[in-house]
Design brief:
The complex is a heterotrimer of chains A (about 140), B (about 500) and C (about 325).
Chain A lengths: L1 H21 L14 H20 L10 H24 L1 H15 L4 H22 L13
Helix pairs in contact in A: 1-2, 3-4, 4-5
Chain B lengths: L2 H12 L2 H19 L5 H14 L4 H26 L8 H12 L3 H36 L2 H12 L10 H14 L3 E2 L6 E2 L13 H20 L17 H6 L1 H16 L4 H17 L11 H16 L1 H7 L5 H12 L8 H4 L1 H22 L3 H5 L6 H20 L2 H20 L4 H23 L11 H27 L8
Antiparallel strand pairs in B: 1-2
Chain C lengths: L1 H19 L6 E4 L6 H16 L8 E4 L6 H9 L7 E6 H8 L12 E16 L7 H10 L5 E4 L6 H12 L9 E4 L3 H9 L5 E5 H9 L3 E6 L24 E8 L5 H16 L1 H9 L7 E2 H22 L4
Parallel strand pairs in C: 1-2, 1-3, 5-6, 5-7
Antiparallel strand pairs in C: 3-9, 4-7, 4-8, 4-9, 4-10
Helix pairs in contact in C: 1-9, 2-9, 4-11
The chains are: A mainly alpha (about 140), B mainly alpha (about 500), C alpha/beta (about 325).
Amino acid sequence: MSDRIAGIVILIFATWYGFGASRLKAGFGSGPIGPKDFPLILALILALIGIAILITGSSFKPKWPEAANWLDIGLVIASFVAYAFLIVPIGFIAATTLETGLVSQRFGAKWWQALATGFGISVALYALFVWVLGVSLPSGRIFRG
Amino acid sequence: MDVLSLLGQGFAVALQPINLLLVFVGALVGTIIGMLPGVGPINAIAILIPITFALGLPAESSIILFAGIYYGSQYGNSISSILLNVPGTASSVVTTFDGYPMAQQGRAGPALAMSAIASFFGGTLSIFFLIFFAPLLSKLAIKFGPAEYFVLMIFAFTALSSLTEGNTLKALASAVFGLILATVGLEPQGTTVRFTFGQLKLYDGLDFVVLVIGFYAVSEVLNILSETQVGGEVRKLTGRVMISMKELTSSFWVMLRSSISGFLIGVMPGAGATIATFIAYSTEKQIVDRENTFGKGDIRGVAAPEAANNSAAVGAFIPMLSLGVPGSGTTAVILATLLSYGITPGPLLMQNNPKIFWGLAASMYVGNLMLLILNLPFVGLFAKILLVPRWVLMPIVATLSFVGVYSVNNSPFDILLMTGFGLLGLIMRKMGFPLAPVILGLVLGELMEVNLRRALNYSNGDWSTFFQGPIVLVLWAFTLISLILPFVLKQLTQRAKPGKLQGE
Amino acid sequence: MKRLLTVVLLALASSLSFAQFTPRNTECIAPADPGGGWDFTCRVPGAQVMAELGIIPGSMKVTNMTGGGGGVAFANVVTQRADDENLIIAASTATATRLAQNVFAGFTADNVRWLGAVGADYGVIAVSNDSPYQTLNELVDAILAAPADFAFAGGSAIGGWDHLKVLLLMNAAGAEDLSAIRYVAFDGGGAAMIELLGGRAAAFTGDLSEVLAQVGAGEIRVLGVLSPDRIPVLPDTATATEQGYDVIGANWRAFYAPPGISDEAYNFWVDAVRQVAASDEWNTLREQNGLAEFALFGDDFEAFVREQVAAIHTISEDLGLLQ
């Protein structure tokens, strides 16, 4: 069953992609093969694969996670998204301590362990990347006067 | 002038105390940088350029330092691939195929040791190729035009067959999806912008690091969350830490073949180490994998890509030194450094600046030896990383992912992209779609399209250009062999061992 | 009243300019990966020479901000770091070309402040040593007679600077249908050079610095330089103008600054670039790297960039590169 669904999803994606490709405009002097041709070929191939998966749809049964695990996954993903929005305003160390603490807690650490782990990792990596490797990481906009 | 006396002069340069020190520093820094996802040798070299100027180092010393970082990072790359299933760069994705299963079986030690040995093997063997065949190979690189690249990409695509466990259709779908991801951004020939949804950040396409970390590191974290009960068990290390003689001898021919093919692919500017690893892995799977153990923790599956990517890294120096065309991003930076010393790499480099060429070649040899000595004793220590509880290890993986992805473009947007690909990767895993073909597709996609278009542009739209010339025909022959060989070998082994059931 | 006040303040500011602004933690953004022309501009005339001359305190940090052919850095500077007075950004004719062709999603040359140029790389047309063509005239006439038989290889995308030089040349030569002139795009001049050496491209379009090594090795021949006068390193090569094609293609290497900086800071950086351009340290390195002198600073340079952007826009429209 789930293979059938996968086949349909692939077919829809391929159609959408192919439609997008067909609307691309070829610029001046792009030669015998323009910017849309390669994507169109790919869309066609993917659509054929989608149909084939739909037809042959095997008895493959995915092992989906339990509800409790989905909660964990959802929480971690939400925290990743939050991290992307927080890293610049509150800075690398604060954002990473919170984020890493949460991941640590989800993997079974106690609260104090999680926070200590988060803080330790973020400070250590900040030091390594910023001071040793010269990579620039945000220090936090709200802390600047 | 004979090669040995020139090489002797090269060793005289390489063995000067200052240069020995620089090789050591470079190799060490490179190893550390290689272990961290997202931060490549390019960053480290770019940071060190002003320092080498400030110290007033001569050109050959700077190059020796930078080259040390470059191949040092090739050693370091494999460590996180094997232990955590987190490849730091595209060229170490293949190392995860067998390295990570080995680590899960408690054989992290031998996997790491093999990776160091194969790296050394590929690295040093290719230095000899560099010394003896550089002028010859630069002529070969010149003969490699768009049509040749396109057929090489087709050949590399047949590596897909070795990444297929179970459903071929699904692997194919994954690979085409990878090719499609490669079409995002400004088209490689002209000015048409494709599938960026108005995001200026996507103009240059999806960044490799973002995709690899999303698909591997993030989806691995999510996958573990989805399978284990909170708390999880701690991995054990079983058996020896060191590699056995049997494992070593079984990999000798694997390393030899992979080094040669890796080197040749590395010589072609733009083809790169990643393609070399895929080709080496699939070739070896076809040649030596009679028991169908590749992908399930076969040590030869670690030896092949590691020998190939180190060999390719050395090969990439040939077009840089003898033609002035960098074969990879890192060699481009080294090229720029040479230019700022007023040294122009090109056909005359070996005559005008023998110290640079021969000093570099000799120091590469010394550096690889150092790396082997540096890496082997730490194998046991690195392997112990797996004994760290999950609630410490997983946050480290997550944070390394963030830093690696963020530092590519200093862009939080990339963290969102990475998360999206992580979730997609999890769903694909659960639905039985393999992830490695996506990476293969992404690596090959742009090169395939751009060279298809260039070749047809040259031929005024005549497709017969893909069947003209000796190199193209040889590549087609390889492609055919690699498509047919698995069936032939299967027939042979089935006849030899009737009724043998294949493992899980 | 307010306006008058501004004028007075401006006058005051410019008279005090050098005393007022002290740079600290300076940074140069190279809008591409390490190893290219912008990276060189930041690292050599920027970080290296400015530190050697003692113009800036300590060292200058170089950041590589890749994306959109310089567009990501441009957008970042205009929107995020508009008032960062310690920041300069490397630019070249490629930047002007993309601004002219409106590739930077609505941003224009007026969005930033142009500081000055430190040198220029003049365009060249080259052929391999076994090519039958000895002069630019011979090559151009042959192409005009049978454009389908000739492919140029160059290091920029279609519509980019290397392609534009060919189109300008053929336009000056009186080609009727410019879309018949064939151009194959590669990733950088080095890769395009291999096409010439491999015998696949009939001619190479690029910059002087990209061909010096191969010319020195006797592998290729430069047929014409797109410069106003002959270049010292190639004294025997005629310019395109000498051969009857009125085309000049200078790929200048320059810096710009964020739009919101004070005039003190602007004047400081203009003066810094001027000092670099005049220094022996830079001029030695410049010549080694095949760059010609190209000295325009401050207001003069701003005016020049505006004019060039307008000119490239018109040409691109005329040539059919813009829809």
